[in-house]
Design brief:
Length: 515
């Protein structure tokens, strides 16, 4: 995988022709060349992975296939013939469906109503035939092998169930090509397994699947072929058989990453964060632990165990019903994020787009949001100070951007995460809480975030890291606290932490009692 631009692999002679393809496609946005002479072929009955760092051109490629963008040069081919889609509806009518990481359903409509929105079956005199809609939806769910109540409102469905609804909707349009953009980012292991089972059912029926994921193990588990983009260019397109994860990473980032988990040796100091018997009724109970300076402590467990809720209570977003939190030996007032910030606590939330950033604001304003009081007088912010602060952190975190005055929403996911980190590190905290710090970001940026967390701990920061990524937990943590059903189930030192010991504690099969 070291060689540049391996041409798209073609099927063996007499094999199926591609159902959808790009041929030498280029696309620019102003001075930014998002795609450069990219060729891609999708074959029926085959899952094809699209890999690359954030900003490699994956989103532009997806939107070109989906009819959102028209290429500046090159062609889109459907069944071997050039085609120009008249917007997303044209691509959908041609049998191309996109399943995004966050489905967009109407929350107050039923599953069946969402699937047939705008094209409900009709009775005589034009009345909606609700029975026919539910029967058709039930048939789609049976075809997918999923039991889902067709009359249930979309509100309250899990992300996994919402994605099944989106897939069923695609099937109702007779989709032949399914494009899946980070569909597993917010799913549990069992939900991912169910989704893959559904996808394999579609593959067996002859559908072509383009699968995008930053989780390399998923690419190897599901896909037969992979196309790698870097800086908008085609690096390679070839079968996965015989490749390793290191090969794939090298193609994506153009270099050997070295260690993905660059854990530095640190001198562990005094206790910076002390939690005693913290309880929020119905959510978590009797949580006690400490995090010392120079230490990375991971809070692990299954989704729904209460990890993020503990973090939000520590920071004051939610008020605990009982217990005490101390920062640097001083009791922290409950239910007050302002008090937490004043005490030196910073929280990087799990959902960076909704809780970590103001997407319409500029990069520099987002970085400066936590320190506006220090950047001016009388309620007036000095723009020069704001810009200088943002520029300093942009350099320190190796942020990739066009202009600091651009809206933060134009940045890639990995760079958005760096902006959230910059915003909170600018407060010079003594305790940093990071919730899923590398979710949805590419492997190169993930290594940079890990390197940053390790160096911060080496400088004496106390880090509490919440992560569902077990390799990340094992690679970065000095100690692992495992939660199960709202309680601390185990405390495991780094030397004894393995996937088996952590999962055993998380599922209640074993584990040492929490201190």
């Amino acid at each position: 995988m070291n060689q540049p631009a391996t041409g798209p692999a073609a099927p063996a002679a007499g094999g199926p022709a591609p159902v959808l393809a790009l041929k030498d496609v280029s696309k620019s946005f102003g001075a930014v060349r998002a795609l450069r002479d990219v060729t891609l072929r999708l074959f029926p009955g085959e899952a094809h992975a699209l890999a690359g760092e954030n900003g490699a051109g994956k989103s532009t490629l997806i939107k070109t296939l989906a009819g959102v963008h028209r290429p500046d040069a090159g062609e889109v081919l459907l069944d071997g013939e050039p085609v120009v889609f008249q917007g997303p509806a044209g691509a959908r009518d041609a049998g191309i469906a996109v399943i995004y990481q966050e489905p967009t359903l109407f929350p107050d409509l039923s599953v069946a109503e969402n699937i047939f929105m705008g094209r409900q079956p009709r009775r005589t005199l034009g009345r909606v035939d609700h029975r026919a809609a539910h029967e058709s939806t039930a048939a789609l769910m049976k075809r997918l092998g999923v039991a889902l109540d067709t009359r249930r409102p979309a509100r309250g469905l899990t992300i996994a169930d919402q994605q099944i609804v989106e897939i069923a909707k695609a099937l109702s349009f007779d989709a032949r090509v399914l494009i899946m953009d980070e569909p597993t980012a917010a799913l549990t292991g069992s939900e991912t397994a169910r989704l893959f089972s559904v996808v394999r059912t579609l593959l067996a029926e002859g559908a072509a699947v383009l699968f995008i994921s930053h989780r390399l193990e998923e690419i190897f588990a599901l896909c037969r072929r992979v196309t790698v983009l870097r800086d908008g260019r085609l690096i390679s397109s070839q079968p996965l058989a015989g490749l390793t994860e290191d090969d794939l990473v090298r193609g994506m980032v153009g270099r050997d990453l070295g260690k993905l988990y660059p854990k530095q040796r640190t001198t562990v100091g005094e206790t910076a964060l002390s939690v005693r018997r913290l309880t929020r009724e119905g959510v978590f109970r009797d949580i006690s632990f400490e995090v010392r300076r120079g230490e990375i402590v991971a809070l692990a467990g299954l989704v729904g165990a209460g990890r993020s809720e503990v973090a939000q209570a520590l920071f004051g977003v939610d008020r605990a019903d009982a217990g005490q939190v101390e920062v640097n030996g001083r009791a922290l007032r409950a239910g007050s994020p302002t008090a937490a910030m004043d005490a030196g606590v910073a929280l990087v939330p799990e959902d960076r787009r909704r809780r970590g950033l103001v997407m319409e604001m500029s990069v520099e304003r987002n970085i400066a949001l936590t320190g506006l009081g220090r950047l001016g007088r009388g309620g007036m912010v000095r723009r020069a100070l704001e810009s200088a602060l943002a520029a300093d952190w942009a350099v320190r975190l190796q942020l990739t951007y066009n202009r600091l005055a651009d809206p933060v929403e134009v940045l890639s996911g990995g760079n958005q995460q760096k902006v959230v980190l910059a915003k909170w590190l600018a407060t010079e905290p003594s305790v940093l809480i990071v919730d899923e710090p590398t979710r949805g970001i590419d492997v190169g940026t993930k290594a940079e975030v890990h390197r940053l967390l390790s160096s911060l701990a080496a400088e004496g920061l106390a880090v509490l890291m919440i992560s569902s990524d077990l390799p990340e937990v094992l690679g970065m943590a000095d100690r692992v606290l495992v939660m199960r059903e709202g309680r601390l189930a185990a405390e495991i030192p780094r030397a004894e932490a393995t996937e088996e010991t952590v999962m055993a504690a998380a599922t209640g099969r074993a584990g040492r009692a929490a201190a």
